[in-house]
Design goal:
about 180 residues; Thiol Ester Dehydrase, Chain A; three-stranded antiparallel beta sheet; 8 strands
Length: about 180
């Protein structure tokens, strides 16, 4: 599956936030947010807590993405380079042909790419993401737990950094297998 995310910088609505002197000065706010992160941790500490606690992640899904909560999406593994998201074969995800609905598969594939971007922009509120395209190839019938892995973490981070620094929209094609 291929997702195209287009990170778009958002204007800083509060002048003076993070020591900025002008509302559109993005680099200073971004640098302060980066400095707050631990050197060995790729994501914001609060995001780390969210994704490494099953209860917190499930609560986040329940409040923000109820269909992902109901479908049973789960994080198998995540780091700065890759994310693996699974979706189970169960009553809610099953289609009449006894396999997983395409929409559920697409949701899991998009989550594997989107959670990396979300981790890099967490608490920055200067970048928005938009899926502009999706391409899929079916290899075999999905009749059990399916895991989608995105290994494009570094390119996603570089694209977000470019969007923040330049102030211009960027496009990235991320792959989930």
């Amino acid at each position: 599956m291929t997702d195209e995310h287009q990170p778009t910088p958002q204007p800083n609505r509060r002048a003076g936030m993070y020591g900025d002197t002008q509302p559109n000065q993005r680099a200073g706010a971004y640098a302060d947010t980066q400095a707050a992160r631990q050197p060995d941790a790729p994501f914001h500490p609060e995001f780390q807590k969210l994704i490494h606690s099953r209860w917190r992640f499930r609560a986040y899904l329940f409040m923000n993405i109820p269909s992902a909560f109901r479908s049973g999406l789960d994080i198998e593994s995540i780091d700065a380079e890759r994310a693996a998201i699974s979706i189970p074969f169960k009553r809610f995800t099953k289609n009449p042909f006894r396999s997983i609905y395409f929409a559920c598969l697409a949701m899991a594939a998009e989550m594997s790419t989107g959670i990396l971007a979300m981790g890099f922009i967490y608490k920055q509120q200067k970048v928005s993401m938009l899926v502009t395209g999706l391409e899929a190839r079916f290899i075999k019938k999905a009749t059990g737990k399916v895991v989608f892995t995105c290994s494009d973490g570094q390119s996603i981070k570089n694209t977000i950094d470019n969007a923040v620094i330049s102030g211009e929209p960027q496009v990235i094609t991320a792959h989930a297998v």
